[in-house]
Amino acid sequence: MKIETFNTQPTFKTFEPYHLSLGAKANGFLFVTGQVGFEDDGTLPEDDDRQVENVFRHLDRILADAGAEWANVVQMRSYHLDKLMETQALKILEEKRKRMPDDQHAWTAIGVTHLMPAGSRVEIDVTVAMDS
Q: What is d(CA 62, CA 122) in angstroms, rounded to the nearest whole number?
């Protein structure tokens, strides 16, 4: 099996210190590294809704660069600071409804005590089915 790294976004220099790829392609799937709510200038807003909007904007660009669409997403995982899950889930539902049907994919929401980097309040990763 061949695994290819996927790094097309210049705004994701954030991952360089951790030696991570933006994503990896393997066996007809693109596995996208968890995205956090950075603005394009590298700052993290304190507003939860803005961080969620930014995460989806990053995912929009990644999917487009990979030649995929939201219709190709088969799984989404979201990570939330403990007490924020319920309120962030509402904003995530709003953003995802703009992009895909509710019953199209699997979604797991996970409560955590900390996200990297500090100041991150939500993180989302996706698995995307790609043409072979």
A: 18
Interatomic CA distance for residues 111 and 38, integer angstroms: 20
pTM of the full predicted structure? 0.90
pLDDT tens figures, 30-75: 999 999 999 988 889 999 999 999 999 999 999 998 889 999 999 9
Q: Residue 46, Cβ neighbours under 10 Å: how many?
A: 10
Residue 10, Cβ density class (10 Å: 0-12 exposed, 13-18 middle, ≥19 buried): exposed
pLDDT tens, residue by residue, 113-126 = 999 888 999 999 99
Could you tell me the two tokens for 37?
């709510």
Q: Do 119 and 44 form a contact (C-beta atoms < 8 A)?
A: yes
